[in-house]
Automatic annotation (TrEMBL):
<feature type="domain" description="VOC">
    <location>
        <begin position="4"/>
        <end position="119"/>
    </location>
</feature>
<dbReference type="Pfam" id="PF00903">
    <property type="entry name" value="Glyoxalase"/>
</dbReference>
<protein>
    <submittedName>
        <fullName>VOC family protein</fullName>
    </submittedName>
</protein>
<dbReference type="InterPro" id="IPR029068">
    <property type="entry name" value="Glyas_Bleomycin-R_OHBP_Dase"/>
</dbReference>
<dbReference type="InterPro" id="IPR037523">
    <property type="entry name" value="VOC_core"/>
</dbReference>
<dbReference type="InterPro" id="IPR004360">
    <property type="entry name" value="Glyas_Fos-R_dOase_dom"/>
</dbReference>
């Protein structure tokens, strides 16, 4: 019945688009894609990288997702961790919990939990 996953949506606070672009577009090197005009008026922004599609939608009042999270597959987990830590982000390793998968968690500028993993 289900053929795949189109996108994951994560909430951001009103006015958070510039911080989102700096983090997701700059630090994570994702590509911003334009939202359709009918949706652009709601704020937020969309990003893609490889097969990952992330929609950031404005939520008011905003509360960060501390448990629910997207998990991104990456080619260089150590390099990404170093890049995030250099930017002042705390990365919590979760190695060994899933056989054959190295991973860690961090948060975006809004406190939303993110997972990055490499087989």
């Amino acid at each position: 019945m289900i053929l795949g996953l189109d996108h994951v949506q994560v909430a951001i606070p009103s006015g958070g688009e510039d911080d989102a672009r700096a983090f997701y577009g700059g630090l994570l090197a994702m590509t911003e894609v334009p939202k359709p005009p009918a949706l652009a008026v709601r704020g937020g922004c969309w990003f893609t990288s490889g097969s990952a599609v992330l929609h950031l939608g404005v939520e008011d009042p905003f509360a960060p997702a501390r448990k629910a999270h997207p998990a991104f597959l990456v080619a260089d987990l150590d390099g990404l961790r170093e890049r995030l830590e250099t930017d002042g982000r705390t990365c919590v390793p979760s190695d060994g919990e899933i056989e054959g998968v190295r991973r860690f968690h961090t948060t975006d500028p809004f406190g939303n939990r993110l997972e990055f993993q490499q087989a």
